[in-house]
Write a structure and sequence with these properties.
This protein has a 7-stranded parallel sheet. It has a 3-stranded mixed sheet with strand order 9-11-12. A two-stranded antiparallel sheet has the order 2-3. The protein is globular and about 55 Å long. It has helices at about 25-30, 80-90, 105-110, 130-140, 165, 190-200, 230-235, 270-275, and strands spanning about 5, 10, 40, 65, 95-100, 120-125, 150-155, 170-175, 185-190, 205-210, 215, 220-225. It is about 25% helix and about 20% strand. The chain folds into 2 domains: about 1-150; about 155-279, no CATH class. The chain has about 280 residues and is α/β, with parallel strands linked by helices. Helix 4 (about 130-140) links the parallel strand 6 and strand 7 (about 150-155).
Length: about 280
């Protein structure tokens, strides 16, 4: 069983342009719910502390958890619950917790009392969707005490130059992904290549996670089903350090004819025309 996410609360308020086509809002709407409804997830709140009948943790030592992927860890409405979550993390120093936020300005005031210069098992990460948001959020992140820091450029809405921030040596990872689910704002290959080059120059690991629904390369527009966006990103060879494994071209997505397998891909039924090489 996969334990890669932990959502102690659910729901969010849209905050910046990257939120316009939020995947959580889209998926909640598919279920007849509203993404604006913010609530504590009772059955999942203490997930890292749950044990099996033999008394062993379900989340094993050495595992990593991405926290609040259906919300924002530093959301104002979650202030009443956050100390309890910090306490749960405090009890599992053997698990790595990966935190992501657009609300960089709230991080410092929401850190636990014993944070000091950071916890070894917690990583602070901010989302930036364009240059404006990079210049807004990254100086705040870099001015915070933390053992691990990173940035996620998603949805990738414009060319970004992270060179001044990468040069500090504080950023451990850079992730990038285009817009998917209900969004159609395009991602350009040239933007990803420029960011890849910056990370390679400063030797900061870079992962291109997905092309998004609309990907433009060499002036040609590709509309790509959700189930195939990750493999196309891998085939671009824009990963640092290099990933030289072979990712063969598929003539048709093997899964997206079943809606649940790709969480509601908007391009279902069009795979024959979009699943092609962009190498």
């Amino acid at each position: 069983m996969s334990h890669d996410t932990w959502n102690p609360w659910h729901g969010c308020r849209k905050y910046s342009e990257g939120c316009d086509h939020c995947y959580m809002y889209y998926l909640d709407n598919q279920r007849g719910k509203s993404g604006e409804e913010i609530y504590r997830v009772k059955t999942n709140f203490n997930k890292p502390l749950k044990k099996d009948r033999q008394g062993h943790f379900h989340i094993k030592s050495g595992e990593s958890l991405r926290v609040c992927m259906t919300s924002d860890f530093f959301l104002e409405e979650a202030d009443a619950w956050r100390d309890d979550v910090w306490n749960i993390m405090r009890q599992r120093p053997d698990v790595h917790f990966w935190l992501l936020t657009k609300r960089a300005y709230r991080i410092r005031a929401c850190l636990p009392w014993d944070w000091l210069d950071g916890w070894d098992h917690v990583s602070l990460n901010v989302t930036v969707e364009n240059q404006k948001r990079a210049e807004e959020r990254l100086p705040i992140l870099l001015n915070l005490p933390a053992k691990h820091k990173g940035v996620m450029v998603a949805p990738f809405l414009g060319k970004v130059d992270l060179s001044p921030y990468l040069a500090t040596g504080q950023l451990e990872t850079v992730l990038a992904e285009g817009e998917n689910y209900d969004g159609q704002r395009p991602l350009y290959y040239e933007w990803v290549k420029a960011l890849y080059d910056q990370c390679a120059r400063y030797r900061v690991p870079f992962s291109f996670l997905g092309t998004g629904n609309v990907f433009i390369k060499d002036g040609k527009t590709y509309k790509i089903c959700k189930a195939y966006q990750h493999v196309q990103a891998l085939r671009s060879r824009l990963q640092y350090p290099a990933d030289n494994r072979d990712y063969p071209v598929q003539k048709r997505c093997a899964t997206c004819h079943l809606q649940n397998s790709c969480n509601g891909c908007r391009w279902c039924g069009k795979c024959g025309s979009v699943a092609r090489s962009m190498k």
